[in-house]
Amino acid sequence: MANYVTAEEAVKLIKSKDRVLVQGGAGTPQALTKAMTARANELRNVEVVHIHTEGFADYAQEQYAESFKTSAFFIGGNIRKQVQQGFAQYNPVFLSDIPHLFRNGTLPLDVVLINVSKPDKHGYCSLGVSIDIMIGGLEKAKTVIAQVNPQMPRTMGDGIIHMDRFDAVIEVDEPLYELPIGEPSDVEKRIGEHIANMIQDGSTLQMGIGGIPNAVLSCLGNHKNLGVHTEMFSEGILPLIESGVVNGSQKLVLPNKIVSGFAMGSRKLYDFMDDNPEVLMMDISFVNDTAVIRRNPKVTAINSAIEVDITGQICADSIGTKMFSGVGGQMDFMRGAALSPGGKAICALPAITGKGVSKIVPTLKEGAGVVTTRAHAQYVATEYGIAELKGRNLAQRAKALIDVAHPDAREELEKAAHERFGRSFVAFNEVVTA
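The structure corresponding to this sequence follows.
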């Protein structure tokens, strides 16, 4: 069994020009990333890769540019400024594909930094709240450095790893990042009500974290036999589990189980996950595999957007040319839900920004990224209702989207639609009365 060392001793295994994979989300190993960064004067051109992390990320700051190069698969708030200023980079890839980059040698890994639960009597630890992309990395990395943390819950699924796999181990008692549930705004509540009305009994849910997903969950108290198969989840789901609304009885893939890749919430959520056989934390290449997702019935995928144009193109990763977040698993689940029997792929967003700018636009901003193509878009939800796009031509889509845009934006959007689609905008949207 591996011997415990100090953080400073553990990170001496990292060498210049190494590629280092860091566990992300609430599982970010803060003690190890801090110790690695403290070696900046001794290291050059270490590439740090991860999905979004929480907390400490000083290795991405300008002052360490000679020592560390950060390449993120998803941009968290702690490195967003550095990416936008050119001191870190974004690597666009579907979340489901990231482990394959490690497994097939496209991105060989030298070192992995992880945050794990205390070992059980057999020497097995758990990756806890953040399994996500880490399994492929652990399979292929030359060196594994772990921090054993009693505050990390022991979760079931793919994230069980024996201490014999660790090349260096440190012991910490480090709180996990927490993201408590906030009260949804009135706009989020209205969006939540619209979406909840679309969800059928027996559906399998995929939803992320934030005001809109939590608003949807709060409206599902009278539903029956819902299941969960989602890349990430928060404690907004807990009341539905406790009441029996979520039981997974209708799922075909791992029935009666909550399946996820990573989770983020308060200590209440992490305590619920600890040693709970109802929760399976799985490799994201499985969770987000379209072929797996589509096997479940009535998959309802709820994702967000920065802006949507009047043809249904969904931008979710950038504001113009300025990168903001990432592709993530949106397309994995939008496509998987669309292929599921009775499934629905929903893009949910407020009609306007906090500054009063319409999020439904004639055209996406110059340089904006199309995360979900117009061919994949099915439903767009705002506080003004649901625009159904599937099966509709461009002119009909434009009308449906204008109807759920903010009233102050509709005149401009209609003008743009008339200019773009000509007479067909009216012809295909005529209301025929007797």
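Residues 7-171 form a domain with the Glutaconate Coenzyme A-transferase fold (CATH 3.40.1080.10).
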